[in-house]
Amino acid sequence: ILDIEQDAVNFFTKNNYSNIPFLGNSFHAVADMNWMRVGFLEYESDGAFASFGRRAIKWGPGSYGFAINDSAPFLDNIYLSLDFPVGDGNLWYDYTTVGFNNYALSYNAGNDDIDNRKTLFGHRFGYENSSFRVALSELNLFYNSVPSLLDASPLAFWHNNYQHDRSNVMIELTMEKLLNITGKDLRVFGAF
Asked: What CA–CA distance (Å, rounded) separates 117 from 180?
């Protein structure tokens, strides 16, 4: 299947990149090597899930989640999830690492002194049962440098304690309740 559409770079630059092999009257072939929209390796067993590759990811039931939502068609990511039964519900933990590049924005156009890589680390702890869910999440967007082990830590919250200039940290609290009103389920969801 050939995915014929303009490359996302076109929306930020004056280039005419496309998935179509030839453009216009030029003899130069222009190919988008970022061609696979979905491709991943996945492992799943009782209480454990791991995925490595390119796929859409989201946190929460909404169409446009506050932290991570699936409005982007794909993200190059590593996604890990653990689930532990507790009483009448489950405790769970999710961890994701997403790598971005900024070639579309051409920040370092000819300037090798500017590093434009970005890496997103996200993790969340939660509890859910058949009618209630609560989760505490953290997203750490690290940019312009190679991340350290502290930045990738799966258990530390508020990574940016020292307020260095290469990290944006966001904490999110989500709660959800299913209410049965006259035989119909009503979902109440909030992200803070």
From this structure: 47
- DSSP annotation of 101: -
Give the pLDDT of residue 183.
80
What predicted TM-score, i.e. pTM, was given to this entire model?
A: 0.72
Neighbouring C-beta atoms of residue 157, cutoff 10 Å: 14
Q: Which two tokens stand for residue 103?
A: 């070639």
Q: What is the pLDDT of residues 110-123, one digit of tens each?
A: 555 556 678 889 99
CA distance 38 to 91: 29
Contact status, residue 76 vs residue 99, Cβ threshold 8 Å? yes
Cα distances from 157 to residues 16, 140, 189, in angstroms, run: 42, 9, 23
Q: Give the other-Cβ count within 10 Å of 31's Cβ.
A: 13
Cite the beta strand spans of 9-164 per DSSP E: 39-45, 48-55, 75-86, 89-100, 118-128, 132-143
Task: Count, in order, helices (H) and strands (E) of the chain.
Answer: 0, 8
